[in-house]
Design brief:
The chain is α/β, with parallel strands linked by helices. The chain has six helices and nine strands; from the N terminus they run βαβαββααβββαβαβ. The protein has a single domain, classed as Rossmann fold.
Amino acid sequence: MTPAIRRFPDLPALTEAALAAVARIAREAVAARGVFTIALSGGSTPMPLYAAMAGRGFGAPFASTVFFFGDERVVPVGDRRSNFGAIAPVLFTPSPIPVGNIHPMPVEVRPLELAAATYEDEVREVLGGGADVSGALPRLDLVLLGMGPDGHTASLFPDRPALGETRRLVVAMEPPTTVEPRVARLTFTLPLLNAARNVLFLVGAKGKEEPLAAALHGPPDPHVPASLVRPTDGGLEWLIGEG
């Protein structure tokens, strides 16, 4: 699939475009299925989007929206490195979202392989889908993703074995060596990402020019995991901030 690529001069302009894209997808999902399912991304770039979603709405009722996380650092929720811990006060606390509609990754479960399996079971229970990639995969309406300066997305890092995963939808990852913070992660795998009805990348270009060019214009390359996200039967859009 050829991605739709849109470039913006700064983060506020990117945020406005992202909010419009989320609202469009949310309205379509609620009209078609009565619910909007979304996987959130960590990092600083989507935080203004989450604040806008909480304050201005995003095309779907809060009660009809189900939130997942595409990846998580294995740290306590109160740790500043936690994706959930960073997002919750911006998006969840100000909004009348039913608690049961929010599905954080179970970072407290050990071993981490069990945590990954537990979250996969939760995804399947909520979204449906077959037992493996030979059957129908769970399909999120929207997955939000970013990209790191090493080309990683979610917590799928360059040249790691998880990039070849075909059966598991969530896996545990050892701490990365290419970016901070160097803590263990839980992450969606490519089968789940590529089953999504829509994938929206929000990326600041500064310092990421080389992997960004490879992801946008090159062939799928395990050195640049973001290039491997190509939905099988869904939309793929990159919103890129140049400032």
